[in-house]
Amino acid sequence: MLVLFQRETCPDCKPVRELLTKLQVSYININVPKPREERHELIRTTGSKFIPALVDGATVIPGKLRENADIIAYLKERFGDPEAVTPQVGTAPEGRPEPVA
């Protein structure tokens, strides 16, 4: 189960939550206190006091100050990019319907 350390008002956390929703991935959301020195569980788990931070089993992606690119890239690699265009089933590469046999 994925664990996301975040705060609701964090502007870098919102895109991570939105991507998890688009991917329809279940996760545990842990809201951390605003004062960084009070984020004991986050620091103990990730070694960092910054959010967002993601834990996926043995994979730990610690937060970085004002940064979420590592988490976004990991989620897209692990679960697929919901924005990627995939060809429709039953359509030839040129966009014409495939002939029926």
Automatic annotation (TrEMBL):
Coiled-coil segments: none
Pfam family, one: Glutaredoxin
Residues of the Glutaredoxin domain: 3-55
Domain of life of the source: Bacteria
Name the UniProt record assigns to this protein: Glutaredoxin
Source species taxonomy: Bacteria, Bacillati, Actinomycetota, Actinomycetes, Kitasatosporales
